[in-house]
Amino acid sequence: MVIFKNADQVSDFLSGLKKKDKNLGFVPTMGALHKGHVSLIQTSKEENDVTVCSIFINPAQFNNPEDFRRYPVTVEKDIELLIQSGCDVLFLPSVEQVYPPGYKKKIYPLGNIETMLEGYYRPGHFQGVCEVMDRLMEIIQPQRLYLGQKDYQQCMVIRKLIELSGKQQQLELVVEPTIREEDGLAMSSRNLRLSKEDRAKAPVINKTLSYIKNNLGQIPLKTLRNTARTRLESEGFIVDYVEIADAYTLETVRGQSEKLVALVAASINNVRLIDNMILN
Question: Which letter does DSSP use for residue 203 in this model?
Answer without folding.
Answer: T
